[in-house]
Amino acid sequence: MTIPLPRPQPGPHGDFQFPPDDVMTEVDANVVSGTLAPYRTHTRYLQSVSVGAHRSSVFAIGSFSIAESCYIDSTGHFNAAEFIMCANQIGYVCIGEALRRGLVDFEGFDLAWFKEKQLSSVLILKADTSFRKVINPRSFVGCCEWHSMRMKRGLLISVQAFRFMDDDHGLATGEYLVAFRL
Question: How far apart are CA 108 and CA 65, in angstroms?
Answer without folding.
Answer: 35
